[in-house]
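Example (one chain per record):
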Amino acid sequence: MTISIAPPRGPFRDAAFERLRAGLSRRGLLGAAAGLAATGLTDGKARARDAVQPHVLDDFFRPGQVAGAALSPSGERVAVLLNVGEGGTRRMVVDLIEASDPSGPRRRVPVGDLDVETLAWANDRRVMLRLVIPVTAGGNTPTGRGIANRTFEIQSRRVVSMDLESGEHTLMFGNERVRLRESLNLGHIVDYLPEDPSHVLMAAREYSGLMALHRVNVDTGRAELVERGSQLTMDWSTINGVPVMRRDISTRGSFINIFVRPDGQGRWRRAWRQPTAQVALADFIWIGAAGRAGHALVAARLEGEDVLSVRDLDLETLEYGPPMASRQGLDVSHSLVDVRGRYMAAAYYAPRLEYDFTDASLAPHHRAMNGFFGNECNVHLWDVDAAHNRFVIRASGPRDAGSWYLYDKTARHFEYLGSRTLLDTRRLAPAEAVQVRTRDGAAIEAYVTAPPGGAPGPVIALVHGGPEARDVLGWDRQAQILASRGWWVVQPQFRGSGGFGRGFASQGWKRWGDRMQEDVEDALAQVIRDRGLDAARVGIMGGSYGGYAALMGAVRRPDLYKAAISICGVGDLGDALSYERRDDESADGFVYNYWISRIGDPRTDAAAIAAASPRLRAAEIACPVLLVHGVNDRIVQVHQSRRMHEALRAAGKSVEYVEVPDAGHGDWEDDVEKGLMQRYVALFARAFA
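Predicted structure:
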């Protein structure tokens, strides 16, 4: 199958497109294998023939260009949200493209100097824009000797609908001054109601503190109450505009209850619950309508099953049907639905994005799309029209931070819409998946990012959090920044990771201090051997569980690691378990039991838990350590890093500690991340000198 590509016409035809087209053409013509060989990724001892200057750190934090693209409900137009400001300024516009003539002239609608987070169509005339608005909180606070002004900035969210003919903006809930003044988040749209183009469903807090669902007129912004939840309600999911699922968080925020009902009128019944810390890779994912009344499609892993599978759920009896989409050794990542909410495919990362389509005729098109990008990108089908002919696609990969296209299935034609950043693909680092054989004979996957040019050099283990989460072979800004310095980056998918089935994850249970660390070490050893890298210059860093792994790695292998960086990491497993026991408000100890099954039971595994706690073994660490933590972290308490810092200082070790105010579990803004990345790079540079 052959796919053509066309550039944009008019003012949007820019240098970013030319750079991207050069990279894509190279990948498309030479194919993935030849492209990787040309970069030197397949042979770490060979330098690239055409060396280019890598990007500097500042380049990775420059303001974005295209923020999003969306297909209209009719499938006739595409809206592209982009920033056309120069010199770091922000000037947002929406470009309109006729899908029947995508290479024709674009019509531009100004948005203004607004921080627009997302764009979606409400109907064929209006788009919904979610805005991020900084708000100053705090104020004068009495102190022992007077009054201190303690203010800080937080982010609020609002939604406006924009008439694409007149450019008029309408603020949702715009007539409710008290709600606008007192609610931080008025930016959550639950359902775009394709059968009711004049309204959307939105979740917003009432004055009483209860979360409520509202039907909001997109022309006027006026809202009418649909139903109230509770103070613990987070959001709803709907079928044909009827709320049939609700998510409530527990009082202390340690777990989430998922309730369902068949008709939108009956009693809510709990169908699932999950620890808050594992929401990113949950055992229950809502998909949508099942095609028959009283039923829904979900992805769920039932008792005794290995993988997360798509299946039917009877909302009345809570009985599950057999798997409709399932792959051995891989969990469903998400699903694909069309503009009408009809289920089209289950998505998996293997290691790049793949779909199992209900309509098998779509599979060759997706394979052709992947081939167009040299099988180097994750080709995400973002929006699909009702006829399943036009698709808005977001491609991203190790060398593509995100680029947008319109694909016409009948014409087999790609139209380039724009890129998220102005980064040059030729100056970014390629990556590939490798199979690692561990010391006990198991097989795991690791993602290896080579520096531009592929010259041998130092190597850094970048360990993911969770631990029952996973990396994907895609865009990773941290990995790219490290690689831009000439360092190789290895991201091991150690046993205990999520996404590869329960059996794989369970191999890491109660093995935090040994097997999970050994898998990281084995991945490093194989890559160093196969690519001829510098075994004397190895570092390790990660966030959350990855921060713990960095500290534990420094304890276990003082001979290997020359620097360790822990971001929001755990230092004392026994202390973490004690906190979970105190914080678990479930009647049956649900959250605490989850964690002791993963880490160990203090009643029977106390010695192993202590041996796997870096804080208790701080004296064994030889390399310099950098600790970073958000003060308001609710996932890993900030005292974990504070006490680790104290233990390292007491042991006379080289340690720096950075606390990020007004931040949680790694959720700080880009300007903070930029400053932290400068610290990370500086530490590794000193250690590798």
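Caption: Residues 8-50 have pLDDT under 50 and may be disordered.
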